[in-house]
User: Which sequence fits this backbone?
């Protein structure tokens, strides 16, 4: 059996890591969230209002017998609300062992993103608060704003949401 010392090799290996995001739109901007956080994408369902709830909490939906809080992501990110239409979707995510839906204007598709194409967001990239952005993916034809849903829905925010349920 031949032996060799790895430290003597001169060839360097470059490891490219990728991740997948579900891409969606809010207004003219394209966003993405890590697919590992997404449970499902659903058409709009009837939303039951919850009195005295935070302004970004639309209410709850009944999905397969489960009452799930639904967030208007436009409001959460500082965009103006808009009327829902046939393209509007609810993306269902799991955070801290809780299911939570958030409303987006439309869902595009699952995109594989190379880590080498991402960078930290500039401070004034959009009219929205940049604290919720984990990175910006530079694709050949467009930019995708990758959201950090753990920052978007912090423990305090989740507590506020589920306390009103």
Assistant:
């Amino acid at each position: 059996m031949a032996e060799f010392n790895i430290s003597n090799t001169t060839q360097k290996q470059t490891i490219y890591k990728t991740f997948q995001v579900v891409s969606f739109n809010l207004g003219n901007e394209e966003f993405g969230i890590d697919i590992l956080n997404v449970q499902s994408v659903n058409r709009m369902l009837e939303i039951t209002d919850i009195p005295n709830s935070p302004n970004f909490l639309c209410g709850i939906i009944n999905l397969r017998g489960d009452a799930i809080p639904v967030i208007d992501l436009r409001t959460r990110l500082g965009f103006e609300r808009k009327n829902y239409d046939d393209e509007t979707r609810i993306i269902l995510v799991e955070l801290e062992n809780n299911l939570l839906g958030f409303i987006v204007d439309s869902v595009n598709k699952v995109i594989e993103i190379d880590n080498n194409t991402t960078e930290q967001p500039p401070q004034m990239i959009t009219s929205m608060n940049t604290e919720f952005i984990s990175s910006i993916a530079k694709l050949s034809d467009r930019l995708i704003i990758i959201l950090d849903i753990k920052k978007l829905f912090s423990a305090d925010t989740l507590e506020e949401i589920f306390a009103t349920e």
